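Progress narrative, Year 2. Work on Acireductone dioxygenase from Salvia divinorum advanced from sequence curation to structure prediction during this period.
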Amino acid sequence: MAIEAWLMQESDDDQRLPHHKNPPDYVSLDHLADLGVLYWNLDPNKYENDPDLNKIRQDRGYSYMDMLDLCPEKVENYEEKLERFYTEHIHGDEEIRYCLKGSGYFDVRDKDDRWIRISIKAGDLIVLPAGIYHRFTLDTHNYIKLMRLFVGEPVWTAFNRPQEDHPARKGYIDSTLGMPLQVS
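Result:
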């Protein structure tokens, strides 16, 4: 089953809602790939011994892994953390997340600076390239279990927008977009 993504309706309503336009304006996997977003669908029930996951990790150099259960009952300062995750930012490295249970949304900016909402569910492995503006939130189920993968030791630093002079942002624009973003 392929991941679902769509152009978001700008709204101040609850961030955990889908925020579809009317009618919905879906985005293809090819469009996400053009933005540098990678996607695999795996079997989350066999993540401990999954040859497909092991191959991805080996091919891409993902040597570090940990788990995150994100829900109000298991995370201290839950609302504060969710607000931080939902603040638009970039990272100097890829952000790699494999959903094992639950669901949530990654939002990424497209070439025209519009938000694309990507719905992730159990089995979805997503890679956001270094330098892409993005944010994360749970959906209305308020639960997700993620495997977080990294090349080497984890780096947790988020750089909030604007970051046009950050080396990762410049690299992303040059290599993936091939042109400057149209900032509104």
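The chain has one domain: 4-177. The radius of gyration is 16 Å.
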